[in-house]
């Protein structure tokens, strides 16, 4: 019951903050340059990070911030819930996120996302989506934005393993930028399929950038998957499945 009460309190702040952002910031955000627009709308993500910790009794252990490169990169992380999408937005701003198009239709939340120049995909057309990621991903990196791509493609519950997609590694190789791998156990604190949050330690590890120069996407992807899965073996409370 304590976790239920904490979760209700969290969502009260969650939706109140979303309403305030919609009323106060969204009307002026379209008239700002992208960098300033990002800083303004990112206040929502900063607030939720802090509020989740306070309301739900979660403690963060984040290692490897010194590995974040100063220039653009392709960020690849395991995908368990909404929390990592918040954290990765504030970890290395500004970042362009590859996401499903349906998210842009959510009132207020989706309107704010649309203003941040994401790469929105129609998952019913995989061939077109892949081409879109490669074209727009390289273009965004060329403008100085980093690109966030979840190699699993969708949310995966803790303790479950899904095949990694190499689209992010292809984009990084074509643009000549490094891949920044990130591993976390956020789904154990913020379940992706249940609204009740769980107190405890949320661990994040940020790896050293994986260089792409002179390498194939398959080689890069192999390093990304090996690093993320190796870290998950160490930080996850839910046992990981055997490697493929």
TrEMBL record:
The chain crosses the membrane at residues 12-32. Residues 73-187 form the Phospholipid/glycerol acyltransferase domain. GO terms for biological process: phosphatidic acid biosynthetic process. SMART domains: PlsC (SM00563). Pathway: Lipid metabolism. SUPFAM superfamilies: Glycerol-3-phosphate (1)-acyltransferase. It holds the Pfam family Acyltransferase. One of its GO terms (molecular function) is 1-acylglycerol-3-phosphate O-acyltransferase activity. Keywords: Acyltransferase, Membrane, Transferase, Transmembrane, Transmembrane helix. This is 1-acyl-sn-glycerol-3-phosphate acyltransferase. It comes from Vreelandella aquamarina. The lineage of its organism: Bacteria, Pseudomonadati, Pseudomonadota, Gammaproteobacteria, Oceanospirillales. The gene is lptA.
